Amino acid sequence: MAELVSSNKVFGGDLRKYKFKSAALGGLSANFNLFLPSQASTTTKVPLLTYLAGLTCTEDNGAQKGGFFEAAAAKGLAILFPDTSPRGAGVPGEDDDWDFGTGAGFYLNATAPSYAPYYNMQTHVTLELPQIIEAAGLPIDFTRQSIFGHSMGGHGALTLYLASTTKQYRSASAFAPICNPMKCQWGQKAFTGYLQGGIEEAKTLYDATELIKRRNEPVNILIDYGTSDNFYKQGQLLPENFVAAAEGKNVSMRAQEGYDHSYYFISTFAPEHIHFHAKFLCD
Amino acid sequence: MAELVSSNKVFGGDLRKYKFKSAALGGLSANFNLFLPSQASTTTKVPLLTYLAGLTCTEDNGAQKGGFFEAAAAKGLAILFPDTSPRGAGVPGEDDDWDFGTGAGFYLNATAPSYAPYYNMQTHVTLELPQIIEAAGLPIDFTRQSIFGHSMGGHGALTLYLASTTKQYRSASAFAPICNPMKCQWGQKAFTGYLQGGIEEAKTLYDATELIKRRNEPVNILIDYGTSDNFYKQGQLLPENFVAAAEGKNVSMRAQEGYDHSYYFISTFAPEHIHFHAKFLCD
Lengths: 283, 283
Description:
homodimer; 9-stranded mixed beta sheet; globular; alpha/beta; Rossmann fold
């Protein structure tokens, strides 16, 4: 069962931190934050928006710096903030680099033998956390879910949205996402490290540009990135590839002049992302 | 001269971090952040709101977690974020405790011999930073200034506002301020450590409750604190003493049910504090 670690009142709602032993992450202790708006009660379940953070982050970065709560409180949306990887798995090499291993789970299920017992962030986010939250008796309506994220977490949001065979999420949005990880250094490093089949294995599962190509139904996707983002300039994000692959599929891709990769950029457009999801969740 | 360290676009404006050698802080390198709204230009100077952070913080906490920029951008206000103490003075004992010394300058000018050469945060905030900003040619209208802060920084905002003989600030506001530091452990420790004359020396200079007693003119002060704030419960803040001393002097003191001492509390009421100051600054 999830144990309540702390609780902070914010914009009339509650931000709660929980920890629990995660089956998806090899039995390790995992944390998550959950914002419950004041509308949530024993008689009223609220929709759930999941926020996936980027490289090096934890469950706290989006909660502390994202600027999501004013709009979420107004719209009556809960927000789930998972961590970005297992912590303390002890796999050799997992702490050598900032862009792989701890803090860099890439929201996939690992198949490489040393990572597979622990690095199953896809299952953790999509299946395990909803189960844990439901078991805790928290007033969430799991039939109304959407997902968003930043950078590696933007990759996570797009791929978990597009790859879901059950249509778990009604909409996806992202700040400066890694859009075509097969084609950038971050993604290639992650896929070759976590997946036994490497990049080829990732192609149909974990690459948003590949996934949107194969998508026939309409999508609900909003993406913002900054033109002064150094990772964009270095070719880690590749939004142009995603846009080209998504032609005619209702993707709103906005290049924001002068913004960078930081939470200052995220917080600026945070209210618009919350309102975008509210259109699909608050019906 | 101030050297630009970094710049982040946020809500259409610019958050800039500068460093410079601080005369007030004994020649040590000091950092500050300055938010410039998009209204600021070579032909338009904007008002300045100074935000003083609390114990253990730096110039970054308020910028990253305060949630001030959306409202400040809308109102066209600049926000200055100073650090909370000198860094690296090397005074024996300054790093022994989290509530004294580094990160805990208390916005006073020290007179105890070992601290006096470095710990002059009052001069740093009120005199030196405006001079440095003006010398950098930044478009600030220094005839329109107000000040706010959190906890130790709320103490700073109230005392610098009330003690200013030149009426440097038009209004002051605070989140969970230390209102009567002579009467609480944090303040007593600071005053006996930094001031040769100890608490008696602090009485007419650095205690907001004492200062408001002596004030005859009307004031413009807004204070919020949370009823679930552990430091409030421990008697570190003593807002009741300030209210009693301020009777009839136009102080708005609000007890916010269930909120604690964190930036989640601050961010919730941040827009109202910005709008409060804008009434006095945007005329």
